Amino acid sequence: MNITPLVWIITILVTIAFFVYEFFAHVRKPHEPTVGESARWSAFYIGLALLFGVGIGMVSGWEFGGEYFAGYLTEKALSIDNLFVFLIVMAGFAVPKIYQQKVLMIGIVIALIMRGAFIAVGATLIENFSWIFYLFGALLLVLAYRQAFVSGDHNPADGRFMRFVRRILPVSDEYDGDRLTVVKAGRRFVTPMFLVIIAIGFVDLIFAVDSIPAIYGLTEEAYIVFTANAFALMGLRQLYFLIGGLLERLVYLAQGLAVILAFIGVKLVLHAMHVNELPFINGGEPILWAPEIPIWFSLVFIGATIAVATVASLAKTRRDDRRAALDSSAGTPADTAPRTGKDPS
């Protein structure tokens, strides 16, 4: 892709404009969004993301268009998993409903900034060191294992990191509207709202570690990586309020994401072998028998994995609901299984 500095500047300015509009139109005045409002804006941002992908395909070719759609699907799925941890953070800090929009908005902006920094670093590494694909691939395989098998029922509000923050900052016991600090008896305290934002930022940092290597496994175009991430984060606030109840029913989302991360990890390792320059592997020569997985296969695989994880999750929770209803009618307490996933501590 031939992306000029002007196109980059316009893209970044338009992205900033969307978030500024979001803040002044929806977030500035504290309120809990209705289902209708959340549904309309979620549909708008998803439609906009799809139209942008079609535009990339028509202007730059459908190879790049396919890379964008595969990246967008992956980043959207990872962002929904991010939402689940946001939900745990909100519950752990008992954030009032009317202030949750502001917390989400700040968290999403922090996520975009962190991912932007990771994108720039990743682009530089890929351009100068082909062996970085080995490192990215290995990292994704480790993260896939953690996603699938490490329990994620830990509360980030009471993790080691937040206990450390509480030790070094004076914290007030109660919220004071949406203020971040408050003065009591001549001494300034941070409010729980400030701690929530720190926790959200920490969670964003953790998720950026697997988000950026994952999408660089699908495309080497920094512009596609940035726009796929930006569109995945746009509308995430509305999606939180639209599917808040559904999040807890996606019990196999973590396993689905683990499969996707593992697939991209293998894809990266195969690509690293194909462009190998490390002297202690095959004498520094490319390993030509290593296959390159085409982008159309990646797109189909990622879409199918998300669909299977969603359908299986809803089927399981439906069975669990029926079993719970039968146990309740019989006077037997129902067993509930916590969702497994990423531990942000």
Task: Describe the 3D structure.
There is one protein chain. The model has no long low-confidence stretch (mean pLDDT 82). The radius of gyration is 22 Å and the shape is globular. It has helices spanning 5-27, 35-60, 62-92, 97-128, 132-149, 160-168, 192-216, 222-233, 236-242, 244-247, 253-274, 295-330, and strands at 181-184, 187-190. Helix 3 (62-92) packs across helix 11 (253-274). It has a two-stranded antiparallel ribbon. 71% of the residues lie in helices and 2% in strands. By secondary structure, the protein is mainly α. The longest helix is centred in the last third of the chain and has 36 residues, at 295-330. Strand 1 and strand 2 form a beta hairpin.
